[in-house]
Amino acid sequence: MNYLPILRRCHKGGLVLDNGAPAREQIHSLADLYRQDPAGVGGMLIQIADLKDLVDCERHLGGLGRAKLVRDEIVGELLDDVGRAEIHFDHRENHQALMQTRDLAHQALDIADVASQHADELEASTALARQAREERRKTPRLVFVTHLW
To answer: d(Cα 64, Cα 60) in Å, to the nearest integer?
Structure first.
């Protein structure tokens, strides 16, 4: 499983970090889990939603209360059931862990390179636009004066 965001260009030439792949995978797993136990999964989701309101109320009390801890426990249980959004490196097999780590590092470097290139492009286009604005400001304007006699 790869949980790094995917770097892509959007329709207006900007860059987008798409972090939807792991969410899609977890939603698919959640749907499968719901099919197996609709009452149990549905009940957990309702509890999470209900506890959100209580967490919001407790926030106004300066963090007093346990609703956030209880909600986080339920969310953790549900994540355990659908597959956590974590990357576990197999510490028993050093070679495998090394390969996983290197693969992630290469992907992260690729994202950083593309993002850096895009930042350079944006910087250049911003400088050109700024220069054009300054030139327009410097250009004297013709003033037509008409005299009525």
So the answer is: 9
Global confidence as pTM: 0.48
Look up residue 74 and give its two tokens: 């339920």
79/73 Cα distance (integer angstroms): 10
Alpha-carbon gap, residue 84 to 88, rounded angstroms: 10
SS3 state of residue 3: coil
Express each pLDDT in 52-72 by its tens digit: 888 888 887 776 778 888 999
Cβ-based neighbour number of residue 46 at 10 Å: 10
Encode 8-39: b = buried (16+ Cβ within 10 Å), e = exposed.
eeeeeeebeeeeeebeebbeeebeebbeeeee
Query: Do residues 54 and 69 touch, judged by C-beta distance below 8 A?
Result: no
- In this prediction, residue 135 carries a pLDDT of 81
Answer for the pair 4, 18: CB distance below 8 angstroms, yes or no: no
CA distance 47 to 70: 10
Separation between Cα atoms, residue 54 and residue 65, nearest integer Å: 9
3-state secondary structure of 139: coil
